[in-house]
Amino acid sequence: MKVLLVGDGARENVLAHSLEKSTKGYKVYGLSTYINPGINSVVKATGGEYFIGNINQPEIVKEVIKKVNPDFGVVGPEDPLFRGIADVLRQEGIPVFGASKKCARIEESKAWARELMWKYSIPGRLRYKVFYTIEDAAKFILEYGGSVAVKPAGQAGGKGVKVIADLEAYLTQDKREALTKSVNDIGSLYNKEGEPRIIIEEKVDGPEYTLHVLTDGKTTIPLPLAQDYKNAYQDGIGPETGGMGSISGPIELLPFINNEEYQTTYDIVKRTIDAIYKETGENYVGVIAGQMMLTELWGPTVIEYYSRFGDPEASAIIPRIESDFGEIIEFTATGHLSKARIKLNDQPSIVKAVATLGYPISKQMASGRKIVLDLDKMKEHGCMVFFGSVALEGMQLITKGSRALEIVAIGDFREASENLDKCIQYVSSDTKLIYRTDIGRTVEYQIEKAEIIRYSYKNREKRGILGVSADWSPNGGLW
């Protein structure tokens, strides 16, 4: 059976690895913008073929379809989904693991996602306002004050979020000018004609986590939780990235999220799938994820949605699945997900991403660097390696400007973290490597924080005021 995999990052390397491991004997064909070493290895091992081209261009995808005639397709990244590449495959009569353009709007437009939640009374929703101009958004913040989160109104690679504390807007003129510049920077990340540019939401705080749910339009299956580490540097400081690491487990939970919260989150995502169908008239097929936060306001609270697997969350979740995940991907694409069963390795996993100097501030500085690694030694220490933004050029691995590698270890958090530290020693470059050593080592703090939040939102629940916020506008009505 032939499979066409579209995408070129570590997430797609994980999916390719799952297809290669399957007992179904899939022949994997790849379409990427560069030769990903991990995907290339799978393509060669399974007897497929690798095509290089723009993964966002429908005409290029159609050309590859004609050459391959795949039995089903897998679209990994969000941008091809936003541009309707999954629709292209379906129009050619090919089942595909990947949301349609209309369904992928749940990630592409944060404004649409919030509107959907309020229209269908989906729990875990935050109050929000959208702005079509940067000037109006800045004016709103400066005039009204209050604690808010300012974001691009559309997908911007997980970047651009600015949290503003309640008195920050009333400080010095320098602070006001800096705030205006910050809003301008956020607005520059998303500028789609006819769409709002900035969304402002009420600020909440708590441990973050992600639940991915597989769906074929009829059946849904929740996967284990994961937590992403967004900031570039140790202890959660520095600029936001696509994710410098992730943890998952034990079992289907995280140490600071209990089973009741897991089930509540699953219900939120299922209700979102239903709402998407009601709005678009199309079944959601693929994976949808709720990027969540445990808050005093709601308990499980939606920060945003993914219309694909998170990256690096996929590297934390999928290697823990002991079932034939390649077959599960096929079941999802072909409408037979009811046949699937998820069997887990109950132990946790940790992922650490490795990038080169310059990331995430300067893609140019982080590009064109050589990376060398000893895969055999890393395997001896129990680590798996998935290749991200790194290309095979001749016999060399050359960075493309983002996270080059995702290294995975399974075991209790201490053991897995120690194994990863050993494995990273076998990676070198002609420049400095950027990675975090604290991933998976702050679990105790998050457990304590979650307990405090849990006490507060459970009290709200008993009093019947779960999700109820007080307006803090000096004029008596912010939203």
From TrEMBL:
Q: Which UniProt keywords apply?
A: ATP-binding, Ligase, Nucleotide-binding, Purine biosynthesis
Please list the GO terms describing molecular function: ATP binding; metal ion binding; phosphoribosylamine-glycine ligase activity
* EC number(s) on file: 6.3.4.13
Tell me the superkingdom of the source. Answer: Archaea
Q: Which residues form the ATP-grasp domain?
A: 114-334
Its BP terms in the Gene Ontology are: 'de novo' IMP biosynthetic process; purine nucleobase biosynthetic process
Q: Which residues form a coiled coil?
A: none
Q: Which SMART domains match?
A: GARS_A, GARS_C
According to its UniProt record, this protein's enzyme class is: ligase
The reaction(s) catalysed by this protein are: 5-phospho-beta-D-ribosylamine + glycine + ATP = N(1)-(5-phospho-beta-D-ribosyl)glycinamide + ADP + phosphate + H(+)
Q: Pathway involvement? A: Purine metabolism; IMP biosynthesis via de novo pathway; N(1)-(5-phospho-D-ribosyl)glycinamide from 5-phospho-alpha-D-ribose 1-diphosphate: step 2/2
Q: Which family does it belong to?
A: Belongs to the GARS family.
Give the protein's recorded name: Phosphoribosylamine--glycine ligase
Q: Which organism is it from?
A: Saccharolobus islandicus (strain REY15A) (Sulfolobus islandicus)
